[in-house]
Amino acid sequence: MEHESFISLGVWQMINTWINLFILYLLVKKFLFKPVNKILEQRKAAADSLIDDAQKDRDEAAEIKETYTAQMRQAKLEAGEIVKDASQKAEKKADAIVDAAKKQAGDLIERAQRDAEREKKKAINEAKNEISDIALQIASKVIEKEMSEEDHEKLMEQFIDNVGDESWQK
Amino acid sequence: MERAIILAASAIGAGLALIAGIGPGIGEGYAVGKACEAIGRQPECQGAVTRTMLLGCAIAESTGIYGLVVGLILMFANPLIGLL
Amino acid sequence: MEGARIFFRIPIFGGLPVTETMVNSWILILGITLLCVFLTRHLKLKEITKRQAIAEWAVQAVNDLVTESMGKAHVKTYAPYIGALFAFSLFGSLSSLLGMKPITSDINTTLGWAIVTFVMIQYSKIKYHGIKQFFKGFTEPIFVMTPLNIISEFATPLSLGFRHFGNIAAGTVITSLLYSALAYLSSVILGGIQIPFMQIGLPAFLSIYFDLFTSALQAFIFCMLTMAYVSSAIDD
After folding, report:
1. Does B68 sit within 8 Å of C163, measured CB to CB?
2. Is there a contact between B82 and B7 (Cβ–Cβ < 8 Å)?
3. Contacts of B80 in chain A (CB under 8 A)
4. Which positions in chain C touch B58 (Cβ < 8 Å)?
5. Coiled-coil segments, which residues (chain B) (predicted)?
6. Facing residue for A13 by CB, picked from C19, C79, C80
7. Residues 6+ apart with CB under 8 A from C59
8. Out of A8, A18, A28, closest to residue C36 by CB
9. C70/A90 Cα distance (integer angstroms)
10. Of C82, C79, C87, C78, which is closest to residue C33 (Cα–Cα)?
C-alpha cells in the first residue's frame, strides 16, 4: 500500500476537505440547530406569554382594587348621609310624638279635672239630699210639725250655702 | 557523498529546530506561576483562572510546535533529498 | 513516519488519490449526522428526555460561545458553522482512540479549515468596511508597515493550521514511537520472541493526554481563534 508523505500538500485533498466541511455544516444546521433552536424559542415564547399573562392579571387586579376602594368611599359617604337624614327625621318624629303626648296628657288632665268637678257637684248634690233628709228628720223631730216640700228645700239651701264652701273644699 | 551530507545536515538541523521548545517552556511556566498566585489570592475563581490559563498556554505553545513540525519534516519527509 | 495510506486512485487527471483521510472524514460525517438525528428525535416542550437535554445543552453551549465572542447579531449565521467545525475537529482527533488515523493529523485538513477561516476574515472585512478601507487597512499605522501587515495576514491561517496539525500529528508520532519502543522492550525481556506484551496498559496513560486532552483543547482553540479573528474583522 503506498503512502503519502508525512507532510504533503495536495489541491485535490484540500478540495475534499472543503467539500466535507461544507456538507457537515449543512447537515448539522439542518438536523441539530434548526429543531433545537425552534424548541428553545417555543419554550421562551411560552415563558414570556406566561409572564405577560401574569402581568396583565396583576394590572386588572390593581384596577379592580381601585374601583373597589372608590366605591367603598362613596358608599361610606352615602351611608353617613342616610344616617344623618334618618336621625333628623327621627328627631322630628320624636318631637311630634312628644307634643302629641303632651297634648293628650293635657287633655286627660282637663278631662280629669272636669270629671272631678262633676263628681264634686254630684257629691255635693247627694250630700245635699242626704243632709236635707237628715235635717228634715231632725227638724221634724224638733219642730214636730210637718213641713212642706218648699220650706224644706229653702231651709236646706240656706244651710248648705253656709256650710258647703268651707267643708267641701278640704 | 552529497546524500550523506544532506542527511547529516538534516539530522543536525532537526536537533537544532527543537531548541525552540525552550521558549514555551519558560513562558508557560511563568504563566502557570502567575495563575497559582491568582488562585492563592482568591480561591473561588479557580475554575475560570485554570481555564484561561490553559487557553493561553495552548496558544503560546504554537511556536514550540512550529519547531517540532520542522524537526519532524526533516526527519521523516525530508524534501531536501529530492533536490539532489 | 509515513503519511496517510492511499487506498486507490481514481483514474482521471492522472490518478487522483483516495486517501485514508478522506475515507475517515466520510465515516465521521456519517457518524456525526447519525448522532444529531438520534439526539433530536421527538422533541417536546416539557418533560424532556435525557437525549433532548444533551442536544439542548450542546446547542446552547455553542450559542453562548458565539454570543460571547461575536455578539448577539451574528449568532444565527455563525453558530452552526462553529458547531460543525468543533464537532469535526473533536471527533476527528478522537477517532485515534478507535484505531483510525485521525483526520487532523493530515496537514491538508487543518490547513484547509484555516484557509476557510482566512477567506471568512477577508470577506467580512470587505463586506463591513468596503474595498477601499480593505486596501487602506494594510497601510494602517504607518505606510512602511505594509509588508509586515500583509505577512501577518498570511501568517494567521498558517499558524492556525500548523498549530492544530502539529499538536495532533506529534501526538501520533510520539504514540507510535512509544509502541515500537515497548515492543522492543518486550522482545528484549522475552529474549527475542516478538510478543509485545508491554504494549498493554502503559500507552493508555499517555493517551489520556495526547488523545483526549489535546483533541478537546485544540478543537476549542481553533474555534475560539476563528471567532476572535472574524469578530475583530467585523468590528474594526
Report:
1. no
2. no
3. none
4. 217-218, 221
5. none
6. C19
7. A32, A33, A36, A37, A40, C79, C83
8. A28
9. 84
10. C87
CATH of the domain at B57: 1.20.20.10
- Give start and end residues of each alpha helix (H) in chain B: 2-17, 22-41, 46-60, 62-76
Boundaries of every domain in chain C: 6-235
For residue C24, give the nearest of C87, C88, C100 by alpha carbon.
C100
Q: What is the pLDDT of residues C191-225, one digit of tens each?
A: 877 787 878 888 888 888 888 999 999 999 999 99
CB contact under 8 A, B69 and C3: no
B50: cell is 485554570
Alpha helices in chain C (DSSP H): 20-39, 50-70, 75-94, 107-136, 146-189, 202-207, 214-235
Angle between helices C146-189 and C214-235 (to 10 degrees): 180
Answer whether A91's CB lies under 8 Å from A119's CB: no
Q: How many residues does chain C have?
A: 236
Domain that holds residue B30: 2-75
Which residue has 516478538 as its cell numbers? Answer: C194
> Which among A1, A2, A25 has CB closest to C84?
A25
Chain C residues whose CB is inside 8 A of the A3 CB are 2-6
Is the residue at B82 inside a domain? no
The torsion of the CA quartet C206, C208, C209, C215, rounded to 10 degrees, works out to 130
Closest to B38 measured CA to CA, from B49, B28, B26, B27? B49
Query: For chain B, what is the domain count?
Result: 1
Does the beta carbon of B83 lie under 8 angstroms from any beta carbon of chain C? no
Task: Judge whether B48 is closer than 8 Å to chain C, CB to CB.
Answer: no
Per the model's pLDDT, the better-predicted residue between B49 and A1 turns out to be B49
pTM, full prediction: 0.75
pLDDT digits (tens, 9 = 90+) for A143-162: 766 667 777 788 778 877 87
**In-domain check, residue B31:** yes
Confidence class for position C59, pLDDT limits 50, 70, 90: very high
User: B76 to chain A: which residues are within 8 Å by CB?
Assistant: 5-6
B56 interfaces chain C, CB cutoff of 8 Å: no
* Residue A35: its H or E element: helix A34-143
Tell me, yes or no, if C107 comes closer than 8 A to chain A by beta carbon.
Answer: yes
pLDDT at A169 over 60: no
